[in-house]
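Problem: given the chain below (205 residues), write out its structure.
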Amino acid sequence: MTLTDDEILARVEGQTVPTAFMATVAAYGDHVALRSMVGDGWRQLTFNQYAEQVATAAAGLRAVGVGKGDRVVIMMRNIPEFHIVDLATTFLGATPISIYNSSSPDQVAYLVGDCAAKVAVVEGEGFASRFRAVRDQLPALESLVMLNDADAAGLAEDKYGAGKDAKGVVILLTFGTGIGSAVMTNGELVPNTEFGHLVVDGKEA
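Solution.
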């Protein structure tokens, strides 16, 4: 069935992305909304869990000054946190803007500056460094928020991986562009722990 523009507008009148999301949560709360690979298994979030994390992210964004009419730049891989931050931004009446992970510092300066983003949320240090390199070219950018990817990996490992149901202290190390660490005690994350840095081939890792 083909609808006219007026018929489409009449059907969606009064609806927004947040209201549509909440209607979906109400109808399918216990259904799986997001899946992501963690090690050899899958991390799953139901719509109810998704909504809880969106609410938490929205509170965090509000705390750094995001409000109606603002723009929030997001630079992440295709991970659940991207969708959580994206939706959280819309719940505050702000506009989420995703930029390519491959963007160079000069491209970041143009994209973030052109939309006058107030806040940027990035996945890790590798992305954050591109913003810092052009920070002086972004007068409208008030906050650069970085996900703690080591903590996120630690939580996933504790819930779905080798640390599941483990008692006592569980320590996870991540190796990528640097060395990160996460510490859990009886299933509870000790946030923002960092053992320090190692010198590898004369450089700090």
